[in-house]
Automatic annotation (TrEMBL):
Residues 125-136 have a biased composition (Polar residues). Signal peptide: none annotated. SUPFAM superfamilies: NTF2-like. This is SnoaL-like domain-containing protein. It comes from the Bacteria. Residues 6-104 form the SnoaL-like domain. It comes from Actinoplanes friuliensis DSM 7358.
Length: 136
């Protein structure tokens, strides 16, 4: 059941159907951004307001889930937000569902970097691939 709610959400976003999108959220919905606490908010009306602005700013936005795990009332998904004219966003969203509505989400989303930037860990090259770093 959790995956079907998430599928309805993604379908509504990709169709830019604000009413269908808002229908997937419970009135007492809580959005948490652990790495960016100032982005956190409560309430389904805030979801509608935010997505109305997103649709206006990114009329070509399209979302896919590139990997996921579902257990009981939670969906853990790796999301890719394609935003034509802006940086893509990628990351993980943990979604909790109760009574066929989304009641909570925890976002770990970031903009995809353009170009090469220094790796934040000393001694690790940004251009190093996994097999190189795994073998020393």
């Amino acid at each position: 059941m959790t995956f079907s709610v998430v599928n309805r959400l993604i379908d509504a976003i990709n169709a830019h159907d604000l009413d269908a999108l808002a229908e997937t959220f419970a009135d007492g919905f809580a959005s948490e951004w652990p790495a960016h606490p100032n982005r956190s908010f409560d309430g389904s009306e805030h979801v509608r307001k935010n997505w109305g602005m997103i649709f206006a700013q990114f009329p070509g936005i399209h979302i896919t889930v590139t990997g996921s795990v579902e257990s009981d009332d939670e969906f853990w998904g790796e999301f890719h937000y394609l935003r034509p004219g802006a940086s893509d966003m990628r990351g993980v969203i943990l979604i909790k569902v109760l009574d066929d509505k989304i009641v909570q989400s925890r976002f770990y989303m970031e903009e995809v970097e353009a170009g090469t930037v220094p790796h934040p860990m000393p001694g690790v090259s940004s251009g190093q691939n996994r097999s190189d770093s795994a073998h020393g």
